Amino acid sequence: MAFLDRLGKGVSRAANQAKFEADKVMRVNKLSSEATELARQVEQLTVEIGRKAIELISTGQFDVPEMTELAAQVKSVEATLAAKRVELDEAKLAKFEEVAATEVVPPMRASVPASAAETAPGMHCTNCGAELQPGAKFCPSCGQKVEA
Length: 148
Fold this sequence. Notes:
This protein is an all-alpha fold and about 150 residues long. It has helices at about 1-60, 65-95, 105-110, 115-120.
């Protein structure tokens, strides 16, 4: 009987250890998930603080030289990003056109003749007055969203 008692205790111990390890994995996964969610919330709030600071700087309600410089950098990068998105949209719309070997035509300009862009009504930014390409979603000069 001693053998069966030892075997039973060994099986019971192994089952308890397996249950403990399974519970531990579940507990660790849950805590990890909660920590990840809290980190996401911190990141989201930090971004919101940054947006609010940029808004306050833009309206002159917040004047800290270091922040003003960073806000100007953000605005500059946003304008560059808007121009790149316009360029990307134009690149996506580009069509293959066979050209003579001596003639070089940029693909973005080939799809829209210059005269058509100049004479199209309403093709200027409402914010800064810069000329807009047909189909542009953002102004390449100031980054203002183009209203359809």
